[in-house]
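Many introductory courses stop at the sequence. We go one step further.
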Amino acid sequence: MRSRREFIQLASVSAMLLATKSWNAVAAKQKLKTEDLLDFDAKGQVTLLHLTDMHGQLKPVYFRPPSENFGVGKFEGIPPHLIGEAFLKHFDILPNTPLAYAHTMVDYVPLAMEYGKLGGLDHTTTLIKAIRSERGDDKVLLLDGGDTWQGSYTSLQTQGADMVEVMRALRTEAMVGHWEFTFGQDRLKELIDKLGYPFLGGNVFDTEWDEPVFESTAFFEKGGVSIAVIGQHFPYTPIANPSYMVKGWSFGIRPEVLQKNVNKAKKQGAEIVVLLSHNGFDVDQKLASMIDGIDVILTGHTHDAIPKAIRINETLLLSSGSHGKYLGRIDLKVNNGKVVETSSNLIPIFSDVIPPDKEISNLINKVRLPFEKECNRVIGETETLLYRRGNFNGSWDDVICDAILIERDTEISFSPGFRWGTTLLPGQNITIDDMYSQTSMNYPEVYRMEMSGKVIKDILEDVCDNIFNTDPFFQQGGDMVRVGGLRYTCSPKNKMGNRINDIELLSTGDLLESNKNYIVGGWGSINPNVKGPKIFNLLENYLSKSKLVRPKNKNNIKILGI
C-alpha cells in the first residue's frame, strides 16, 4: 500500500470536490494531491461497499483509535492487533499523514485539529453515489454490518427509527445485527418491517422449534454475477446483553450451519459468497480457516479498521472500523464462476474534504430536528482528551467511573467495556449529544450493592478471559470492564484465574481482601429488574456540577507480559 492512498478513488468524486470553492484551501491544509484521489485499482464486475458499527452516528465525529488492542495466541502481533507505530510500519503509512491520523492514536490531538472530524452519513453518501456512478449502479452492493441503530441521543429517543430511515435512503441492500436486539423483540420486528431490505442471520434459532428465526441468505445479481450474502448476527448476544431481550432465541457461531448455508448457496448458482458478519475479527479469521467456499467476509463488532483486506486461504476479510469513519470497498473479478482477481481499500471519510450529499443532509436534519436543541445543550467542558476505545480504561470511562463513585457514594465503580463512544478534544464543550454517545442504551440503571473481594476478583478474571482467551470462539464481546477506585495488574497471557493480581483500593492503598465486602456501583447489568438512576441522568448531574472535567482515577492498571 502506498503511504498516501487516501479517501476517494474516483474521477467523478475528484471533479465534484474540485468544483467546490473551499477545496483548494482544504487541499493545501491537508497536503492532498489530485492523483491521490484517483488512486484505486478498480477490478472486475462487482464492487462491495461496507459500513459497520456506526452506533447511531449520523454526523461527523472524532473517534480516537485504541492505545491497546492486544492479540493472544496465534493472533498476537498481527492485524488487527497492531497499534500506533507498529500499525504504521506494517501498512507502510508515513507518520503525520491523514491515514496515520485516521488509523492510529499517534499524535492524535494535533492531527485531529489539523484534519478534522470523520464520518457523517451525508458525506459517506457522496462517495457511495460517486462509486455507483463510476462503476455502474448495477455493479455495486452496499451492505451494513450491524450495530447501526444504537449509540446516540437520537437513536435512543427514536428507538432506532432515525438510523433506519437514513440507511434506507442510502439504498442499503442487507444488514446483520447485535445491539439492534437490545431494543427488544417487538421493536426489532417493527424496525425490520420498515427496512425494505433483508435482516440476515442464519445463526439464530427459535428454541421451541429449533428453526432459524431469520433468513440466512439473500441473492443479488451485480454486473451479471450471482452473489449470495449470508448473514451472521453477533453469536453471544444473550451473554453480552440481557437474555430477556431475546427470549426464546438461541444464538451461536454455528460453523456447521454456516458451511451448510455456503454449500446451499453454491448449489443455487452463487458465483460469489459473501459472509456479512458481526462475529468479530478474530472469530472470522478462525472461520475463514474452517469454512470452504466463502470468497469475502465483511466483518464487524470489534471496530477494527485495516487499510486493505487480508487473505486467509481463499477468503478475503475486511473490517471497516466504526462510527461511520470509513467506507470499506472490495472489487471482484469473476471468470467461469470463480473470483480470479480482487482489489480492496478502506476509505476514511474526511468530512472537511468530502462535501455532504444534499439529499441525505436534509434527511439527517429532518430526523434530528425534534432533538437538535437538546442535543446541543452544553453541560460541561473537558480539560483533557476524552476517549473510550481500548482494551482497558479510556479517559471517558474514567470520568464515568468517577461519577458513579461520587453520585452513588461507593468505594468501587464498574463501567462496561463497550467499544462504542466518540471522542472529545481538550477544551471542547460537552453536550448532551456527546454524553449520550457514551451511555445511550436500554438498560442504563446504575446499581449500588455490596460485593466481596473474591467476587470482584472473579468478575475481573471472567471478563479478562473473555477478552484474552486464545480461542476466539470463546471471546464473547467487548473490552475489559472499566474500574474506578481500584488499582490492579493484568497479565493477559496467563491462564484463567491468574491474570488479575495486586488489586488495591485506591482510597486506602490496601489490598482487596477476599472475605471483606465493599460498596460497588456500576451500570449496564444484564440482570433483570435492576434498580437505580439511569447512567445518563447520573452522568449529566456529575458533569453539570464539575464544569471543567478531568478524569481522577487514571493510569490505575498495569499490564504485564505484553
